[in-house]
Design goal:
- Two copies of one chain form a homodimer.
- Chain A is of the alpha/beta class.
- Chain A folds into three domains: 90 residues, Multidrug-efflux Transporter Regulator, Chain: A, Domain 2, CATH 1.10.1660.10; 75 residues, Methyltransferase, Methionine Synthase (B12-binding Domains), Chain A, domain 1; 126 residues, Cobalamin-binding domain (Rossmann fold), CATH 3.40.50.
- In chain A, strands 5-4-6-7-8 form a five-stranded parallel sheet, sandwiched between helices. Chain A has a three-stranded antiparallel sheet with strand order 1-3-2.
- The longest helix of chain A has 37 residues.
- The N terminus of chain A is likely disordered.
- Chains A and B meet through helix 1, helix 2, helix 8, helix 9 and strand 5 of A and helix 1, helix 8, helix 9, strand 5 and helix 11 of B.
- Chain A binds a DNA duplex (30 and 30 nucleotides) through helix 3.
Chain lengths: 309, 309
DNA sequence: CGTGGTCATATGTCTTGGACAATATAAGGA
DNA sequence: TCCTTATATTGTCCAAGACATATGACCACG
């Protein structure tokens, strides 16, 4: 096992072993080896025992490739282009749109790395608009703009991380401030394994809590079996799943359909998020929510239908 | 590519492919294969194309093995013992099977799935103890007990998810309630790719903020390159990384050493968390924090050393 | 013109068995 | 008791092959 430390100390040039590259790019060791075999890139140096040593430029190019593949390009088509070309593809992908004026001030503070004032701007927007409008307008708008800017490489990774953390702080703060009354349904809120985006879930939780529903939030990536087991334990009326555009629409619909078959008919299954925004129809007994208005409407409908009990 | 979803859905009996086992136990695919070759465990079934299908009992035993190895046992010595024996070794290790009395009430509410009262109990503990004691005593104690219970299979997956969400809500609520920055250093707070545990980071952020430091929290899994780029952007004085016991000590120390070489000498590098609790020494210029007292001491030392400027 | 189905290709993950570096343990000597 | 050296243990890497799934192209149908 050659540690990164050794390789960096022995020669001043920075080299990375395959485990470090997997960690930094998210590409598995198997993928890295098979790309080398099939496409000839990356073709790292070897140490005295034939173990791969990747260079920093290789790492940069691999990161660009990862970005473009996530956006929908095929590896085989782009892997042999130069780093400069790839970089250009990313900046050319989305025309440089400036954010809508009501968000521009907040985004400016983020891009200027002014943490304190960024935090305060978010808090002020929340105070001014109230939770519902803050979530459905400001946070949704910011998410959209930041997501696009991230794909286009116009925003640094660490800025995106900081944004996500602060939005989480604000939303969770707002959620906990709500009184815990329970006139509405008990809603179990989570995502399936592979879906790591938390902000969408928190937005839904904020809206539902504000509307008086009782949320049981399990965070992201709960295995289906465990969702099934949680339903009786928490006496849940509705299971709501969130799917960001990181997951394919097919996978999202399949997951919802499977969950539907596992749960008793009395428990409703709702699905929403970017991956389902363009979906036409789901499995029978699964409700698709394409907007926050849909969500509030679904809640109202549940209350009407279950008024007798 | 067989997804975990498929293997769990297609047959009602729960089977897990090797990628799912890697994800759930933290043991690499290579390790799982070499254990099978050398020790004969785990010896999973195969599907129609000779791919491994692990059973749920295998998964349980692997979890116990992982825990005992983390405590210092050698794989070869314990791998062929029965699950019951391993389970007994763990409970023998921790004399207190029941949680300490001051935590028992809170844990009971979690295990009884009483969401509202669980939330209120946490809030009350926070009010009563103040943020510092709440974090270093209550949250640390709960983490420890829940972590052990989870690894020993005494607590449901969804309960652990719910716990994590609520602790996050409370901690982020407390963090945002702090007044702005004080006199302390600017501390960049994050974890390296592969380290997904958020609660430790939030605990540190809460303590640092309470002590008057200005935190720049990037959440989990920030690639090293992006940490390097964030340091000048946010004019950071200290980079603090968290490593839970999900990562090996070797990997944690290597990551810290690599970061040290990438950052200017004026920027301090701190590391802490379960993975480093038993580490002897780190690379030169890297400070290991083995407790929250160490953290507060390091903060004080920084203030003294940087008082003149 | 859109919708759905079939086929070919592209792509990622899994397989085996061998090799060896890093780590832990044991043994020896100051 | 502490440090050094030898030995055993253990995790990671390698190679090339295989194949399931995802994607894209083509075609037929309403």
């Amino acid at each position: 096992m050659t540690t990164i430390l050794d390789s960096e100390i022995d020669s001043q040039a920075a080299f990375y072993n395959i485990a470090a590259v997997e960690r930094d790019t998210g590409l598995s060791k198997d993928t890295l080896r098979v790309w080398e075999r099939r496409y000839g890139f990356p073709k790292p140096q070897r140490d005295q025992h034939d173990e791969r040593l990747y260079s920093l430029p290789d790492l940069e190019k691999l990161r660009l490739l990862r970005l473009l593949i996530d956006y929908g390009h095929r590896p085989g088509k782009i892997i042999n282009r130069s780093t400069a070309e790839l970089s250009q593809m990313i900046s050319a992908r989305t025309p440089e749109k400036s954010p809508p004026p009501e968000l521009a001030a907040i985004i400016d503070l983020l891009l200027q790395h002014d943490v304190e004032r960024f935090r305060n701007a978010l808090l002020q927007a929340l105070m001014k608009q109230g939770l519902l409008r803050f979530v459905t307008e400001t946070v949704a708008g910011l998410n959209h703009w930041i997501g696009e800017a991230w794909l286009a490489g116009r925003i640094a990774v660490f800025d995106e991380h900081l944004y996500s953390e602060h939005i989480q702080n604000i939303l969770r703060n707002a959620i906990i401030a709500q009184p815990g009354r329970g006139s509405g349904p008990r809603v179990l809120l989570t995502s399936l394994p592979g879906e790591k985006h938390r902000i969408g879930l928190l937005m839904v939780e904020a809206v539902l809590t504000a509307e008086g529903a009782a949320c049981v939030a399990l965070g992201t990536e709960t295995p289906i079996i465990d969702i099934k087991n949680a339903v009786p334990a928490y006496r849940v009326d509705v299971v709501a799943l969130s799917f960001s555009s990181a997951i394919t629409q097919t996978a999202a619909l399949a997951g919802l359909a499977e969950l539907r078959t596992l749960l008793p008919a009395a428990v409703e299954v709702w699905g929403g998020g970017g991956a389902l925004a363009r979906a036409r129809k789901a499995a029978p007994g699964v409700l698709l929510l394409r907007s926050f208005d849909d969500l509030r409407y679904a809640l109202e409908r549940w209350r009407v239908e279950n008024a007798q009990r």
